[in-house]
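thread: overnight batch results

M.L. [08:02]
morning all. the overnight job finished for the chain we discussed friday. pasting input first so we're all looking at the same thing
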Amino acid sequence: MRLIAQTEDPELRAALHLMTRQAFHTGEVLDLKWSDIDPQRGTVLRRRTETHLAPEVLRALQGPRRQTWWLAVR
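M.L. [08:03]
and the structure it wrote out:
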């Protein structure tokens, strides 16, 4: 948790929250696409299951930059 608190990059913070709070594997985070995320409903499509995103992840994803190094438009 200290690493997340010290992270200034919002996209990295979102990725770390996905892995620590929502038990995403690294490969799942790297395979995410913007189309998998529904910010209006606060959900992410994980394989074939819709999962509610933790508030910390939503806040990080709503940061100043919409494109991220790990969440490429495909």
